Amino acid sequence: MGKKVNGRKRFLVVDILGLLLAVLVVPASTHDTAGGRQVLLDSYFAGRWLHLVFGDGMFSGKIVDWAANLLGLRVQVVRRPAGQKGFEVLPRRWVVERALSWTTAHRRHARDYERRPDHAEALIRWGMIGVMARRVDRHAPAHRPSPRPLQRII
User: Fold this and answer.
1) Are the C-beta atoms of 90 and 78 separated by less than 8 Å?
2) What is the pTM of this model?
């Protein structure tokens, strides 16, 4: 029998910088492969040309063939090394985890206050818009006004 606690799963597709490409919020009872397929379809139909997708263990099995045949995606599964004990940062997987932590930095995302999944998705998008705007602003060239000509004081 499944767990009888209300909850949500969040599926994100991000680029290598951790910027949001697609998001899907579903009930916690949804299987990982169903959510993974849906978020990949959403990103595909949104016109995002993805060639390689890194995923966790849920992207093993039939979903790899499904993504290759239907969407033309190459899925590479990032697994924990054999015999690993405790926490270790895994290459490529930390990008999504970092993006999720950026969204939880916004006060409203610290808890699940939303009743509807589409509202939760919209708030994740709003949070990531703020992250992206700060990153663009931080890397923008500084606007330096031209120096004023010196005035003689008589």
Assistant:
1) yes
2) 0.71
